[in-house]
Design brief:
This protein is α/β, with parallel strands linked by helices and 230 residues long. It has a single domain, classed as Rossmann fold (3-Layer(aba) Sandwich), CATH 3.40.50.300. The protein is built from 8 helices and 10 strands. The strands form 2 sheets. The protein has a 6-stranded mixed beta sheet with strand order 6-7-8-3-9-10. A 4-stranded antiparallel beta sheet has the order 2-1-4-5, covered by helices on one side. Helix 4 packs across helix 6 and helix 6 packs parallel to helix 7. The site of adenosine-5'-triphosphate (ATP) has 10 residues, from helix 1. It is found in: Cell membrane.
């Protein structure tokens, strides 16, 4: 298999169940061009996170397939796949360490400039510089407190520090203030053309600028369109 060069995804007739006898995704069919922005919405249990898990290769579908840049997802070598994708999880995990160390996590050679560029892209730079010691402020146990939305912005900075071709975001469900929410949406929109973005959203403001929004209903793709078409 070849590395991921563009980050175009195709989901074809995808059917998957954690228990194969009970599918939670049924015949999902989606085209995700490289550099585009796709939002995913749907009620709780509709299969949003499951679809993300399949795109991240955590599971393999029983039927159908996913391709990236025209080749089967499973053909991409592990190291190349890790390099190509970034994940902003629903519940961001912060270490008891500085902001800088939290963003640089797992990337020992990364420069301070690259950390700051990732934080700017994640729209996290302003709140970081407002912290008592800026990028050197300690977080986590006994450290400065950040809101759950700010945690997610830091997780986005961490993901972007890896310069992914494809960025997945599972939006935090808990009380994200509207300013932070708008920042998340603006950060995702600004990646357009550079990074393929796939974002599960609980709030419309996050995916207002999406090229397409997928509406999942009981594991089926019920609707697909832009925000103003749905
Ligand atoms: P939410 O908005 O609550 O995050 P979701 O749309 O992300 O929901 P999924 O987590 O994908 O929904 O769940 C889809 C279905 O699969 C649900 O019926 C759920 O109970 C089931 N499910 C999710 N994860 C697992 C798992 N690890 N093992 C077994 N069943 C699971
Ligand atoms: Mg979910």
């Amino acid at each position: 298999g070849a590395p991921v060069s563009h980050g175009a995804l195709r989901i074809e007739e995808l059917t998957f169940g954690y228990d194969p006898a009970r599918p939670v995704l049924h015949g999902v069919e989606v085209d995700i061009p490289a550099g585009s922005f796709t939002g995913i919405v749907g009620h709780t249990g509709s299969g949003k996170s499951t679809l993300l898990s399949l795109l991240l290769r955590f599971y393999t579908a029983q039927q159908g397939r996913i391709t990236v840049d025209g080749q089967p997802l499973e053909a991409v070598p592990d190291a190349a796949f890790r390099d190509a994708v970034g994940l902003v999880p629903q519940e961001a995990f912060l270490m008891a360490a500085t902001v800088r160390e939290n963003i640089a996590m797992g990337r020992p050679g990364i420069t301070d400039e690259a950390v700051e560029a990732a934080a700017r892209d994640a729209r996290a730079h302003d709140f970081i510089t407002a912290l008592p010691q800026g990028y050197d402020t300690r977080l986590g146990e006994g450290g400065a407190r950040v809101s759950s939305g700010q945690k997610q912005l830091l997780a986005m900075a961490r993901a972007l520090a890896g310069a992914p071709r494809i960025l997945f975001l599972d939006e935090a469900t808990s009380n994200v203030d509207s300013e932070t929410e708008a920042r998340i949406g603006a950060a995702l929109a600004a990646l357009h053309g550079r990074v393929t973005v796939i974002a599960i959203a609980h709030r419309l403001s996050t995916i207002r600028a999406a090229d397409q929004i997928l509406v999942l209903n009981h594991g089926r793709l019920q609707e697909r369109g832009r925000h103003d078409e749905l």
